[in-house]
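Most newcomers find our protein records easier to grasp once they have seen one. Sequence and backbone structure share a record, each on its own labelled line. To make this concrete, we reproduce a full record directly below:
***
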Amino acid sequence: MVMNTKIYLAIINFLLLGGIHNQSFSQTNNSIVNKVGVEIPSESVFVHYNTSLLFSGEYLYYKIYCINDENENLSELSKIAYLELVGEDKKTIAKQKIKLEEGQGQGDFFVSVSLPSGNYKIIAYTQWMKNKGSDNFFQGDLAIINPYQGNQTKLLEKSNGDNNNFGVKEQTQMSKSGGVKLSNAKNISLLLNKDNFKKRDEVSLKIKSSLESYRQGDYSISVRKIDTIDIPLKETAIKFKSLNKKNISKKINSIEELAVLPEFRGELVSGKLISNSSDIDLLNKKVALSIPGKEYEVKIATTDKNGDFYFNLDKEYQEDNAYLQVLGYKDRFKIELQEKTSLSYKSLLFNQFEITQEMEKMILDRSVYNQIRNGYFSLKPDTLVSADRIKPFYGDQVEIYDLDNYTRFSTVKETLVEVIDNAWIKKTQNGSSVFQVRYKHPPYNEPDYLPLVIVDGLIIQDHDDLVEYDSRKIKRITLSRDKHYLGSHVFQGILDIETKEGDYYSTINKNYINKVELLKPVPHKKYFHQSYNGNGNKNRIPDFRNQLLWNPNIKIEKEEIQISFFTSDNIGSYEICLEGFAKNGAPVSLRKIITVE
């Protein structure tokens, strides 16, 4: 059964999340799932990365393309991809999480001096891909030279008798210029104003296509110096498409069939409640998640009978830590986050790049250039792309109290009495204090529910902690008087408190609040673009770039677009590499060579 992407996304989201308000899979109606039998296409991932040989102090730049195996277009299913750097011991050295938008994502990885020389693999995948098997992933070869560490044994040239010292390796595949012959040149092409350039010269590159499907495609471009030695081959979009299996889909009859839960709505965080007492039921407990900060995220999930809970994080967040707590319970449960299912790297075969005596000058020169380039990095920085400001989840029908505009009182209790209308503090039968918010529509009866109280993005259960809090530390208080549903939990109003320092969560020390570390998605960057138009101090700064251009977001919005970049003082041959996919899914892999003299 094939259906429109938006339709089966809506269906699978309902099946997985059990309705509008519930953020937990625990409420899934399996009888509905069994009746529907949704067939979801599988995915594959292609990674365009700038080079297969890196030195310490250099960057790996990459663009991820997530492909729908059924229609061969960019996938609208998964919202998160993962990229790992794996060493010859089959262990993950580094891992990054990438947010996908319409099947695309980007990132970079800095090769630090702590990373030893060796042959590595770049691995990329989505959680949905794991349902085709634990060995289903993109893999690419990468060699790293660290000239600052004395031990180079993993890359030193070995005699034939010693080649098995580091495990089984595949037949060496090397190239000086990217390797394979490429097609699609008739449908889309690269045009240059000339082939030979001087130092700090402007290069005018045109990308031309008369076919609308190619103009509506998505591409990435790299311009990098061609190494004077043979380096591992890189995968191309054309080769990837030729090897990729087509028209693969998986029919989902129940959630239990899935080996790995997909991330179709956003980043999936899962965990488990463990009871301190055998007489406490684990079902329907409310677990609150807070990711604090200026653009904070708060969510509430409901546990199933096994104590399992799930959160979908569909918005960008800035902090590396989250805070978890069980609402209404203290010292009764232990919260554990669940690790994601690991991939199997048993069958990985590593390329055999080796250092020879003849490479000594090249290694020395490149290391010096790297140090010079990194010494001036502050003058040529990449910049983060600002995320769109996210409106608070409670909307804009609120009352905002900037406390600097009012007479300052010493405590929150006094501030609520003298400044904040329609909110007050009430004593309960056990002597504790709770906040109350009056519903904005009549009849104005005693509230049926407690309000949601948030300070700097952290959900506060113990309102007593705030009653005597120094209100002179508070910047503003935002009051909502509506009823709000967060997960399956109901709140009568919201008190959102922002302190001047914005770090209230860092002062909290409660044994029922669990601080957990998150693997935050890598931020989007706008990469530095060197220009020598005009005069200035930048013309006197040494420029030994071997990466002249990296742009992961190329759009051909008309028949011909022009891209300009400048050469550096690093003479030699450079390869212009364009990778990507046309609107109809056709792969594009184009190469041009220029010379800098």
Remarks:
- DSSP finds seven helices and 36 strands in the chain.
